[in-house]
Model the fold of this input.
Amino acid sequence: MSAAHEEIPQKKITTRNLRVMKNAGTKITALTAYDFLMAQILDRSGIDIILVGDSVGMVVQGLETTVTVTMEHMLYHASVVSRGVERALVVGDLPFMSYQVNSDEALRNAGAMVKQSHVEAVKLEGGSSVCNTTERLVTAGIPVMGHLGLTPQSIHKFGSYRVRATTDEEADQLREDAISLQQAGAFAIVVEKVPASLAREISTNLEIPVIGIGAGPGCDGQILVSHDMLGLYTRFHPRFVRRYAQMGEEMLSAFKHYADDVRSGEFPAADESY
Done:
């Protein structure tokens, strides 16, 4: 049976499974979800990781950045996503200022994500500055996914969404941060918008999986924002986003068709009425 026609395994994905996949050379697939319906469809498709991303602020709430997303927002969206998932590993983003103040607050917020919203892991941005927090969460039994490179919560610090780690100094820091996160107990790391050669090097040198976004094909897996790859969010189109559908245009056409049918009396027909 060809790979394209293999049935999607029904076994629940765990952090341990991801390490096994990396060691076997099996690419890890990840996408975002913010609601029950999208989560259910993603899970049925066989996606390995479903991230409840703070990107909800941009693609659902219509905000310019992820910075103003709150814990309450994330707890709500993570809870509805978790209800729709049986197989994939559900990871919830910790939003800006939910873990940076101190490790006690980070533990309370991460614990709420697990207990109230039923995610199985949390993701936080940063390198050496969050390693103590990462270790604290892992020690408490909460799996942590790191996030390096372009970290959207720091957009006001960076001043742009340009590629990160293009200088020797920043590349060396990225290498050090990746190793530090692994040592702190992170089960995986997202590496965003860095040179492909650097991402491949880090993926090769780490024991934990490295999930790329705008970081080339050499990572252990890939993640995209679902609304981007479906052509639903069109405010901007990064070069690393491949549009697998044009759902925004299809939805617009369907809505217009419906409106035309209502106005003309074509809808509802006799067999659509009681």
